[in-house]
Write a structure and sequence with these properties.
This protein is of the alpha/beta class. The protein has one domain: Vaccinia Virus protein VP39 (Rossmann fold). The chain is built from seven helices and nine strands, in the order ααααββββαβααββββ. It is globular and about 50 Å long.
Length: about 240
């Protein structure tokens, strides 16, 4: 399945591949205080998982991989990364969040961390539909009773409206050096993300991850005081068979 068939904008998908194949984002995850807090929160949620599918991994692990027995990491470009980039308990594969090449009812948990805001399409509102498709694919590959673990950057409703209005100009700017190669993105509100996930799965918890003084904005180090974006965690479970 091509990216266009899967619903992603092809230019943005290529820009995502090129940006996350670099080491800059991985260095920020290791350095910035907000990502230390995210690392702690995600580790708590994945700890004890036997078989985890990490979708949209980007070559970066925002959790302690040793807390999981076996990890399958997928992203559009993971086949381009060297094997020594990955811990021993990780199998890295090329894969599309919107069309996973994984069997039904297989994984104890699926992690989708800071993925959805990158799933933009040609039109601003395509991102929400692509998020819905990613959640549906995650639900399909989960075992009955398995959990979807979502960590995502969310914004208030007023800023979401601004993002929709500014998406086309930002998509143009993303083709220039001004954004440093980072593609245009759209972030949902926490409430809308909750509702999209609840269409497929049973929400167990929904909470804000504490923020530090620094995070990234368009791939650059940025003071959290100067952005309305905040990290949100949502945990949802696939109904058990027969329930």
């Amino acid at each position: 399945m091509t990216r266009r068939e899967s619903g992603q904008d092809e230019t943005s998908a290529v820009q995502n591949e090129e940006f996350f194949a670099q080491d800059m984002y991985r260095e920020y995850v290791a350095e910035l205080d907000s990502y230390h807090l995210i690392h702690e929160a995600v580790t708590k949620e994945v700890a004890g998982t036997e078989l985890l599918l990490d979708v949209g991994n980007g070559g970066v692990f925002e959790y302690e991989t040793g807390q999981v027995e076996k990890i399958v990491a997928v992203d559009l470009f993971l086949d381009r990364l060297p094997d020594d980039r990955f811990p021993a308990n990780v199998e890295a594969r090329k894969g599309d969040a919107l069309a996973l090449d994984e069997p039904d009812n297989t994984y104890d948990a699926v992690l989708e961390a800071f993925l959805y805001h990158h799933l933009v399409g040609p039109k601003p509102r395509d991102m929400e539909e692509n998020t819905r498709r990613a959640v549906s694919e995650a639900a399909r590959v989960l075992k009955p009773g398995g959990r979807l673990i979502v960590a995502e950057s969310c914004v208030p409703a007023w800023f979401y409206a601004v993002e929709l209005m500014m998406f086309r100009p930002l998509s143009w700017l993303a083709k220039t050096p001004l954004l440093g190669g980072h593609p245009a993105t759209i972030q949902l509100t926490a409430g809308r993300l909750h509702d999209v996930i609840a269409e497929e799965l049973e929400i167990e918890s929904d909470y804000r991850i504490p923020k530090g003084r620094w995070m990234t904005q368009f791939g650059r180090k940025w003071p959290t005081a100067l952005t309305p974006a905040r990290p949100q965690m949502i945990i949802a479970r696939k109904p058990a068979a027969g329930s």
